[in-house]
């Protein structure tokens, strides 16, 4: 790919400044050295083995889920030619997984080995507390990602994301949310990790198969992060992530500004495909207008003729009304 603009870098010397930057952000940014004082980063600077030893000291003796690629299959965890995954997902104890990584990380044809989105508090004791970012009143999900050289296809996430490199080196290539059409997405239901991904091989784009990718690149930004650096990825921004070193560790924090009881828009998309997409055109036009009225416009005209207390879910949702709506949907789907 051609040289891309670099993601903006900002200073965040204290928690209050970081909080303000996160609240005001409308685009991604990089904070160099945000977590250089982490013990995990200090261990990684000694050696990859020191970082692995540090993780083992804190791990719980329970199985971890790990993705393992095929020998000689390259570093891209993706689909094979039959649209099945080109990696196996197994469960094993962390010392065994890290031992296998140690044996394969420098091999020319070593298999990619990747622990993805491991809950810090569920699988480790004290690791989250010893290596943390002060995010104020946010209640994020903290996860750790551990692996050899890997390439993870461009995808997006609903939560906002602060990703901190603890070991190795990572390259992030980001695209605004509206570039989903130009990224040539794969299936919605058969996905490597629950989200649709770009089918474009970023190391060898095929303009015949993916002609709109050139348009996406006009909006792309890139950053390479070293241990201690962090990147803020706004909600719904597409990100292609490469672990460039033989051994890499990332810790990230996900959060939503909406309450936890909000539904998942992706679920609504799947339900709309089930219920609306294959209807005749005139019926689809009707439901488009209904969605515009109740969901996207959602102005005062929707409820002005209804008495207060009699508007049901047309009133702003609360935890209680959201739970009633969720239970109603479950009953309908179960029929």
Automatic annotation (TrEMBL):
Transmembrane residue ranges: none
Descriptive protein name: Cupin
Natural source organism: Sphingomonas hankookensis
Lineage summary: Bacteria, Pseudomonadati, Pseudomonadota, Alphaproteobacteria, Sphingomonadales
Domain JmjC, chain residue ranges per copy: 100-270
């Amino acid at each position: 790919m051609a040289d891309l603009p670099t993601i903006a870098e900002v200073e965040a010397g204290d928690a209050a400044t970081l909080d303000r930057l996160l609240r005001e952000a409308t685009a991604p940014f990089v904070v160099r050295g945000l977590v250089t004082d982490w013990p995990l980063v200090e261990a990684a600077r000694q050696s990859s083995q020191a970082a692995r030893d540090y993780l083992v000291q804190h791990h719980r003796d329970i199985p971890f889920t790990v993705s393992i690629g095929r020998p000689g299959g390259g570093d891209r965890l993706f689909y094979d030619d039959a649209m099945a995954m080109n990696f196996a997902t197994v469960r094993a104890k962390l010392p065994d997984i890290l031992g296998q990584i140690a044996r394969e990380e420098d091999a020319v044809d070593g298999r990619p080995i990747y622990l993805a989105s491991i809950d810090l508090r569920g699988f480790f004791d004290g690791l989250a507390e010893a290596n943390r970012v002060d995010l104020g009143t946010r209640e994020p999900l903290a996860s750790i990602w551990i692996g050899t050289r890997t390439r993870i296809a461009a995808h997006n996430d609903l939560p906002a994301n602060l990703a901190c490199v603890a070991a190795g080196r990572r390259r992030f290539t980001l695209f605004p949310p509206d570039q989903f059409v130009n990224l040539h997405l794969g299936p919605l239901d058969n996905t490597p990790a629950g989200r649709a991904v770009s089918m474009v091989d970023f190391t060898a784009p095929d303009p015949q198969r993916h002609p709109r990718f050139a348009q996406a690149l006009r909006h792309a930004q890139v950053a390479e992060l070293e241990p201690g650096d962090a990147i803020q990825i706004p909600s719904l921004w597409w990100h292609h992530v490469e672990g460039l070193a033989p051994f890499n560790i990332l810790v990230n924090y996900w959060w939503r500004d909406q309450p936890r009881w909000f539904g998942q828009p992706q679920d609504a998309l799947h339900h709309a495909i089930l219920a609306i997409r294959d209807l005749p055109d005139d019926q689809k036009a009707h439901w488009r207008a209904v969605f515009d009225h109740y969901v996207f416009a959602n102005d005062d005209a929707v409820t002005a003729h209804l008495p207060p207390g009699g508007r049901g879910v047309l009133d702003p949702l609360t935890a209680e009304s959201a739970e009633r709506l969720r239970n109603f949907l479950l009953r309908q789907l179960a029929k």
